[in-house]
Write a structure and sequence with these properties.
The protein is of the alpha+beta class. The protein has 2 domains: 1-115, Alpha-Beta Plaits (2-Layer Sandwich), CATH 3.30.70; 120-352, no CATH class. Helices cover 24% and strands 26% of the residues. The strands form 3 sheets. Strands 5, 6, 7, 8, 9, 10, 13, 14 and 15 form a 9-stranded mixed sheet that branches. Strand 2 (42-48) and strand 3 (51-58) form a beta hairpin. Helix 1 (22-35) runs antiparallel to helix 2. The protein is globular. 48% of the residues are buried. The structure holds fructose -6-phosphate and magnesium ion (2 copies). One magnesium ion binds next to loops. One magnesium ion (MG) binds at residues 10, 13, 17, 50, 89, 92, 228.
């Protein structure tokens, strides 16, 4: 069995929170090279905004101590470079310098899929910056459950039985699975609230094959304070009874609104970009997604192809610009700014604490509404 792991972290920005410094990319590449053929079969390094991703193949399975320790050591070394160069937010995503067993709860995000390599294995690796793991909910729903997006759900006999979705409740720390299309509406009830319910994995019901996996860590929930957004990553396997490459890319032709952007506190459109353009600027955004396409062969990467380097996505980029202008004109008002409960996970509580005494009770408090799953 082969495991494909994407492990990402922000260990310092150049300039501000906009991108990764080239010397950090060089160091990560050197370290990946040094363990190819031993710990790893293959490995590549890619960036989106201020996040660096290690894209690795190996035979050790998910959450492997050796692989995670390797990634942790890389991020520690990159933090040293960031400190030396005086880069911004050095070591931002490393909540602790004590590694024990795996990266869970330590800050870096990771998406891992374990599968038997097919005769030909096309995979798409998505990296996003200035947003959160729930940003994948809408595209995953469309890829694996919406026949208006994915023709194969109707006309490919291997896809017609649908897909199984594993959803995580990031607040309660619970997981549930939904069989689709049967439980489509139940699934939508939860994943329509992407700040809390996040699709972790998607599996083909007919083939029993894992089709997609995402990173689900929420730094603020782990640290108990705002430490930046969680800049998610995602792996999607394609073709031969799984969605076609074009079906997986199709949802990104609509730049849907995601949480993140400036100070992790705003809604903004998710902009599909080439690697050359994967550096947020205006209002620390708009949030970006890049897609690296690979053929995996004998565990090694053939690629990447820069999948959004295509004029077919120009209209989405144009539309994202218009949506961003429209939202920006709301300034500090919702729905551009996140709803209050989400602002709890930003730096806002520190500001509002100062004004807490100003509020006098003038009538009985309203009873809070029931929250599903609470
Ligand atoms: C959003 C992000 C940035 C920062 C903003 C303020 O995910 O990383 O928008 O929140 O630049 O950064 P600080 O508080 O570090 O000055
Ligand atoms: Mg940063
Ligand atoms: Mg980032």
């Amino acid at each position: 069995m082969l495991t494909l792991s994407i492990i990402n972290a922000d260990t310092g920005g150049f300039v501000g929170h906009s991108r990764v410094h080239p010397s950090m990319v060089d160091e990560a590449r050197k370290r990946v090279e040094s363990v190819k053929g031993s710990l790893l079969i293959d490995g590549q390094v890619a960036t989106c905004g201020d996040d660096l991703s290690l894209i690795l193949t190996h035979t050790h399975g998910a959450e492997d101590e050796g692989v995670h320790r390797f990634a942790f050591d890389v991020f520690m070394a990159l933090t040293d470079i960031a400190v030396d160069l005086g880069l911004y937010g050095a070591g931002q995503d490393l909540l602790s310098d004590a590694f024990s067993g795996n990266l869970r709860g330590l800050g870096p995000g990771y998406a891992e899929l374990t599968f038997r390599e097919r005769v030909s294995e096309p995979v798409l690796c998505f990296l996003a910056d200035k947003t959160e793991p729930g940003a994948w909910n809408l595209p995953l729903f469309r890829i694996f459950a919406d026949p208006f997006n994915t023709a194969g759900l109707v006309i490919d006999p291997k896809m017609h039985a649908g897909f199984r979705f594993e959803v995580h409740d990031l607040v309660e720390g619970k997981a549930a699975t939904f069989e689709c299309p049967d439980e489509l509406y139940d699934l939508a009830l939860y994943i329509g609230a992407p700040s809390r319910y996040v699709i972790k994995q998607v599996t083909s019901r007919e083939l029993g094959e894992p089709a997609a996996g995402t990173s689900t860590q929420r730094l603020a929930f782990m640290a108990g304070r705002y430490v930046g957004k969680d800049d998610p990553v995602m792996i999607v396997r394609c073709q031969s009874g799984l969605p076609a490459v074009g079906e997986v890319l199709e949802p990104f032709a609509f730049p849907h609104a995601v949480a993140g952007c400036m100070r992790g506190s705003y809604h903004a459109p998710l902009l599909p970009v080439t690697q050359r353009d994967a550096h947020p600027s205006r209002f620390d955004g708009p949030p970006r997604v890049v897609c690296l396409g690979y053929q995996i062969h004998d565990g090694s990467f053939v690629g990447p192809r820069d999948m959004f380097d295509d004029p077919a996505f120009d209209r989405a980029r144009q539309q994202a610009g218009e949506v961003f202008d429209y939202l920006r004109r709301h300034g500090p008002f919702e729905p551009h700014r996140l709803p209050l409960d989400e602002m709890e996970y930003t730096t806002m509580p520190a500001v509002s604490a100062r004004l807490a005494d100003r509020w006098e009770q003038v009538e009985a408090p309203a009873v809070p509404a029931h929250v599903p799953g609470a």
